[in-house]
Amino acid sequence: MNKYLLAKDDFDKFYDLYLYSFNRTDSKQRRDVLKERYDHSKVYGIMNESNLGSGLLSIPFNINFHGVDFKMNGIGDVMSAPEFGGRGGASSLMKAALSDMYQDNVTLSYLAPFSFGYYRQFGYEQVFDHTKITIKNTDLPKVEVGQHGHVKRLNINELPDDAKKMYFEANFLGGVTRPQWWWSHMEEKHSDYKVALAYDDDDKLIGYLVYYSQAETFYIQEWINSNHLSRQLLLKFITKHQSIFSNFVYESPEPDFKADLLADPYSAKLEVVPYMMARIVNLEDFMLRYPVKKMNLPKVHFQVKDSLEWNDHTYSLAINDGIVNFEEADGIGADFEISIQDLTKAAFGYRSLNSLFEHGVIKGDIKQINAVNDVFVQIKPQLIDYF
């Protein structure tokens, strides 16, 4: 058993450090929300006499990556007391969590960084971006009032199962396959969120919108559409708020969102916002079950540099009629060398191997680099959830 694992009855110590580290005030809702995360996580901590010096959560999830189900642990609430800082406490806990993930057959890990540089030392890399769209109420597009369908407005805790199923069906680019407890956690944590549900003439749910407001701004948190009618109905619902709010903001998980569908693209301010990082924990499992985009590949050798010793090898990769063969090949000359961070970017579709080669990040046989490049997906991943 890992010596850093905390027990269920250590929650109060974890909660006290959480309040201090993130400058939060105590409340029943905040305590209940953190307790739910705590109870569903592997919790790590280092004591500093009678208090907790450092702590973090490793939250088990599953993700859908282009139709393949992978186990993924989300790292959250990484914290250290100021008087305990500089002793490597958080670093020790990160290493312990990654080791346990490997032992638990977890393939991937995600986290939201306070510092990209800090988490790169643990093998994480930036792969998720959001596009933040800000538009003034006077610049909202005009939407025709349709003769079909209708919208129903609810509180977040009334979100129907049909909407959750719709999220599940739309989520295939690396997002979290939300278990029921995580839906409940979202509803409790964000009890001020509202939901707009779009229905067609047969009362079939065709889309939904999760939103909230602060002062004079209308924020869109999540927007799922199954067809054009849904998009039209929900967009009309949004524009009906233009007399109430001055600004409208949507942080879309689509990193390449464009404003070309607006009558005046200049009316919207678009920002690419770096979001979360990912890490390949079990490279062998990831590559053997990877949704390859090339059915055949003659054997290629490449060396992966990683601080996790079980990933730090030279490998041979070959594909025969869609069947992947991926195995250690230490001692054989590699066609190219790549860090686990850059391999994560390429495999997730965030930046191609070709681009990494052109920028001088990786070096080696360009023909073999191109061959492996064609194996990976070329669509950037998308993630809505935060932990």
Automatic annotation (TrEMBL):
Gene3D superfamilies according to UniProt: 3.40.630.30, SCP2 sterol-binding domain
Domain Eis-like acetyltransferase: 174-280
Protein name (Swiss-Prot/TrEMBL): GNAT family N-acetyltransferase
GO biological process: aminoglycoside antibiotic catabolic process
Stored InterPro entries: Acetyltransf_17, Acetyltransferase_Eis, Acyl_CoA_acyltransferase, Eis_dom, SCP2_sterol-bd_dom_sf
SUPFAM superfamilies: Acyl-CoA N-acyltransferases (Nat), SCP-like
Record carries keyword Transferase: yes
Domain (Enhanced intracellular survival protein) ranges: 285-382
Gene Ontology molecular function, alphabetical: aminoglycoside N-acetyltransferase activity
Keyword terms: Transferase
Domain of life: Bacteria
